[in-house]
């Protein structure tokens, strides 16, 4: 693959290309979804509503407050409703539930299907907080959890039980970037009436629309690409047909809510999401291709590369790729790795990703595996390519790799 062959525009919408008075392009949707200037004195952006108590003008209004959209701050305000509407438009959802973090979005989705004796199927490469929630919350509650090989595809049918209550997916897998066969797994789940949920943070809901593929819940850390500026904690649960009302009520009973300032910032980030995602995509592929040719690198884990084992699935199901990928350095001791990392100019070292800035950290995926073996033959690295000029990032990496020697 060369940079000139990358197609960066996603489909116009889940229903097809833009037409006059028809479904708008996703880029257009991101600019307009959740905005109602006529309801806010013409303001382009929805105002920030700081509210807990909502007053009702009459006793009758108080008696019928359950019918009011805004009736208590924890249940939602015009600011949070605007974000819910925007995420639903992005993901093609029946409705969206907001949470204070991506980790809570995961945990709430798991908890909403948990009961003593229930059985969950979780990919072995799932995001760490998902695995921790299963091991430290679900299992002590009486839920049985089976971690499965992320490459299992339709073979997941062999792991089903009569009490299987949820199948979790992550596309691609955290830290190691395996690509699951979503349609194959969903087909098995649908045949048995088992709900499915996917961590869709990597694609941001922009390059993958899993609800249109039959997945029931699309979970994101809005902290990442929805916000895009590394300054907000946020989570979203986009719900498929018939799934929203119960999830919304469950989250309310759990007390999950988000602050209006955070909701406003995520909304603001979404307005520029299309241009950010396409820049992340192009720059990350360029850098991944460059890393493939470096003698210090054993292999690169990026589904958009033809050399990646998950490339065919990525090409079939996705319309692009984000800025996050991994690679394996040849065996290196910690002092040499420190020489490389400590001198980097544009790559920061820190948790999270999805912001405008580039990040690079060493990881240890083997510590989060139980069903599969991770023995790559070298040091696993996770990179997020931000919005800097790729040439500057490559020069920074080249100097760092030279320091390894």
Automatic annotation (TrEMBL):
GO terms for biological process: L-cysteine catabolic process to pyruvate; transsulfuration. This is Cystathionine beta-lyase. It holds the Pfam family Cys_Met_Meta_PP. NCBIfam families: cysta_beta_ly_B (TIGR01324). Residues 1-11 have a biased composition (Polar residues). The keyword Lyase applies. Belongs to the trans-sulfuration enzymes family. Its EC number is 4.4.1.8. CDD domains: CGS_like. The modification N6-(pyridoxal phosphate)lysine is found at residue 224. It catalyses: an S-substituted L-cysteine + H2O = a thiol + pyruvate + NH4(+); L,L-cystathionine + H2O = L-homocysteine + pyruvate + NH4(+). Its cofactor is pyridoxal 5'-phosphate. The keyword Amino-acid biosynthesis does not apply. Pathway: Amino-acid biosynthesis; L-methionine biosynthesis via de novo pathway; L-homocysteine from L-cystathionine: step 1/1. GO terms for molecular function: cysteine-S-conjugate beta-lyase activity; pyridoxal phosphate binding. It comes from the Bacteria. InterPro entries: Cys/Met-Metab_PyrdxlP-dep_enz, Cys_b_lyase_bac, Cys_met_metab_PP, PyrdxlP-dep_Trfase, PyrdxlP-dep_Trfase_major, PyrdxlP-dep_Trfase_small. Residues 1-29 are annotated as: Disordered. Keywords: Lyase, Plasmid, Pyridoxal phosphate. SUPFAM superfamilies: PLP-dependent transferases.
């Amino acid at each position: 693959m060369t940079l000139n062959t990358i197609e960066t525009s996603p489909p116009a919408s889940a229903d097809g290309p833009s037409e006059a008075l028809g479904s708008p392009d996703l880029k257009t949707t991101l600019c307009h979804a959740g905005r109602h200037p006529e309801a806010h004195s013409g303001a382009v952006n929805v105002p920030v509503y700081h509210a807990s108590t909502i007053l009702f003008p009459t006793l009758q209004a108080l008696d019928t407050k359950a019918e009011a959209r805004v009736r208590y701050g924890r249940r939602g305000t015009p600011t949070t409703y605007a974000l819910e509407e925007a995420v639903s438009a992005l993901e093609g959802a029946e409705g969206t539930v907001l949470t204070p973090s991506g980790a809570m979005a995961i945990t709430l989705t798991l908890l909403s299907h948990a009961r003593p004796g229930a059985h969950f199927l979780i990919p072995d490469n799932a995001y760490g907080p998902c695995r921790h929630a299963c091991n430290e919350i679900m299992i002590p509650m009486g839920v049985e959890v089976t971690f499965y090989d992320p490459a299992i595809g339709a073979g997941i049918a062999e792991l089903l039980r009569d009490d299987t209550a949820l199948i979790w997916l992550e596309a691609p897998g955290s830290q190691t970037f395996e690509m699951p066969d979503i349609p194959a797994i969903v087909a098995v789940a649908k045949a048995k009436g088992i709900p499915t949920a996917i961590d869709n943070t990597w694609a941001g809901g922009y390059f993958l629309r899993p609800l249109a593929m039959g997945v029931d819940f699309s979970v994101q850390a809005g902290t990442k690409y929805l916000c895009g500026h590394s300054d907000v904690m946020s989570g979203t649960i986009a719900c498929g047909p018939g799934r929203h009302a119960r999830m919304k009520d469950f989250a309310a009973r759990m007390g999950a809510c988000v602050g209006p300032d955070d909701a406003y910032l995520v909304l603001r980030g979404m307005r520029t999401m299309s241009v950010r995602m396409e820049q992340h995509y192009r720059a990350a592929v360029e850098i991944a291709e460059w890393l493939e040719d470096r003698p210090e690198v054993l292999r690169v884990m990026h589904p958009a590369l033809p050399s990646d084992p998950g490339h065919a699935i990525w090409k079939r199901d996705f319309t692009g790729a984000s800025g996050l990928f991994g690679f394996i350095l040849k065996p290196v001791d910690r002092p040499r790795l420190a020489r490389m990392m400590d001198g980097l100019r544009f790559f920061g070292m820190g948790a999270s990703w999805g912001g405008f800035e580039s990040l690079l950290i060493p990881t240890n995926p083997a510590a989060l595996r139980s069903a599969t073996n991770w023995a790559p033959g070298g040091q696993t690295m996770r990179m997020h390519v931000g919005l800097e000029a790729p040439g500057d990032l490559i020069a920074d990496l080249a100097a760092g790799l030279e320091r390894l020697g």
